[in-house]
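Give me the fold.
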Amino acid sequence: MPTRRYQRVPLQRPVSLRGTGHNQSGITKDFSPDGCAIQQDTRSLHCGMRLKLQLALPDRQDHLEIEHAIVTWTHNQKCGIRFLDLSPDALARIKNVYDLLLSAQRIDDQEEAPILISLQPITLH
């Protein structure tokens, strides 16, 4: 099984899928600059399908348009999507959101370090 270039981060956001002859919606389960996993309402996608996506990212209200994507795996009502030929603007937006999510995930995973406070000694005159 090929190794992913990027670690996936959890992200549950609405996504619209448009393929030949049908439109459907789903929810992303995880996300990276290379692709995402999607939970669908119905099982109608199959490996190799080419799709267009409208992905709601948490950084702005407007949806990200991904013109070229492909289904890489399916299992029950979940599927894996790989992004293809992203525009520079789309890639920059995806990487920005990914970096913020990855950073937040690392902060959550770390144990809270004790806070040390150092005060200057008080001298009386």
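The longest strand covers residues 64-75.
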